[in-house]
């Protein structure tokens, strides 16, 4: 008897994962880790400052745009709500607590509070993703959702009274990138494969580095974190909307160039792209640990050889954190199985899946569509960084 007949109906074929998205995830998480490793080297090297600003212009927007792209099919059905809780909310509670306790122990800061209302270090993206994805049905009902998203981002950038609860500044200021991702279709991403953009991308990145080199001693790089209003950064209120618009253009340009150069074929790191959640959530302990252990205190680290060494070490470390052995060890806290906590409707794999939905996109098979680590980024030494 054939498998199809034994099941009583034809078995659904599962399209293969698209290598492009796993490649993009891995390369982006490497940029995140490298950017974090550069933080203690800032203010001593103008070159590092320029590279840092250039990377921070696009690595979080790229994460968030693809996050929105894979959230297109979210419709708040029980199955998807269950995955949102187990894949985003629970890891946030675990790692927000873990980083706070690590800061108390390794950072010798017993006063550091354990709170879920004020995200600390790289955990801020988890509640932001939770809010964005939960509001996806609302954005998809609007005729022109980018208009209110941009308006909310601009208003947030000049509203210091928003406070730090759940990092609402970042939730609102990064919102346009998520909404843009919701509007994208596969044919839009396919246009990035054009020869013109691929040819122009190196020149665009070179120009961005030159501009960043000029701006490094003149500009407050905290604008790239999107976690403060203009007034909190010492600028007039109108600078908030102006910087929001200017950074949006720069971020989208560099994101397009980055994605244009992501390989479409399988590479040696394609498999590592399926484990970026682990690399993202765990690499902060290594970066913070190196800082607290005094490794950055050695003078040679702040020279050209030391800066290159730190960069390579960060890239290798985050790659190792994405490997299967590490994932097996930490799966219980990064991808917890919480079927016991949900109703039968939420436990049913088919719940929330309809033909032609975003979750049926071959690129979103496996954990890609619900992998929050693909969309994460952060920085040192506190919650600013993205």
Automatic annotation (TrEMBL):
Acyltransferase domain mapped to chain residues: 19-322
Region (Disordered): 351-386
Transmembrane segments: 50-70, 82-102, 114-132, 197-216, 236-263, 275-295, 301-322
Keyword Zinc-finger part of the UniProt annotation: no
Keyword ATP-binding applies: no
Keywords: Membrane, Transmembrane, Transmembrane helix
GO MF annotations in UniProt: acyltransferase activity, transferring groups other than amino-acyl groups
Protein name: Membrane protein
Organism: Streptomyces sulfonofaciens
Taxonomic lineage: Bacteria, Bacillati, Actinomycetota, Actinomycetes, Kitasatosporales
């Amino acid at each position: 008897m054939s498998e199809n007949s034994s099941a009583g109906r034809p078995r659904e074929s599962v399209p293969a994962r698209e290598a492009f998205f796993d490649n993009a995830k891995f390369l982006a998480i490497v940029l995140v880790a490298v950017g974090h490793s550069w933080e203690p080297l800032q203010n001593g090297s103008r070159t590092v400052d320029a590279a840092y600003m250039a990377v921070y212009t696009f690595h979080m927007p790229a994460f968030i745009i693809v996050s929105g792209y894979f959230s297109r099919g979210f419709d708040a059905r029980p199955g998807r709500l269950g995955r949102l809780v187990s894949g985003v909310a629970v890891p946030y509670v675990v790692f927000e607590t873990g980083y706070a306790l690590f800061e108390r122990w390794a950072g010798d800061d017993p006063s550091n509070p354990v709170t879920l209302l004020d995200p600390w270090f790289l955990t801020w993206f988890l509640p932001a993703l939770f809010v964005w994805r939960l509001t996806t049905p609302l954005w998809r009902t609007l005729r022109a959702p980018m208009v209110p998203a941009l308006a909310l981002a601009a208003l947030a950038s000049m509203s210091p009274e928003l406070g730090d609860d759940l990092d609402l500044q970042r939730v609102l200021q990064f919102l346009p990138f998520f909404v843009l991702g919701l509007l994208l279709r596969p044919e839009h991403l396919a246009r990035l494969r054009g020869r013109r953009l691929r040819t122009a991308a190196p020149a665009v990145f070179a120009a961005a580095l030159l501009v960043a080199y000029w701006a490094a001693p003149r500009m407050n790089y905290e604008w790239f974190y999107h976690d403060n209003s203009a007034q909190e950064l010492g600028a007039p209120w109108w600078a908030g909307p102006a910087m929001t618009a200017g950074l949006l253009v720069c971020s989208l340009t560099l994101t397009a160039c980055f994605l244009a150069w992501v390989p479409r074929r399988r590479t040696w790191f394609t498999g590592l792209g399926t484990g970026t959640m682990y690399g993202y959530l765990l690499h902060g302990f290594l970066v913070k640990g190196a800082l607290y252990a005094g490794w950055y205190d050695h003078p040679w680290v702040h020279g050209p050889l030391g800066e290159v060494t730190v960069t390579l070490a960060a890239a290798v470390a985050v790659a190792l954190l994405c490997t299967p052995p590490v994932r097996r060890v930490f799966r219980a806290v990064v991808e917890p199985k919480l079927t016991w906590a949900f109703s039968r409707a939420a436990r049913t794999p088919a719940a929330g899946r309809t033909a032609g939905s975003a979750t049926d996109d071959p690129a979103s098979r496996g954990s890609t569509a619900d992998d929050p680590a693909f969309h994460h980024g952060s920085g040192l030494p506190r919650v600013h960084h993205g």
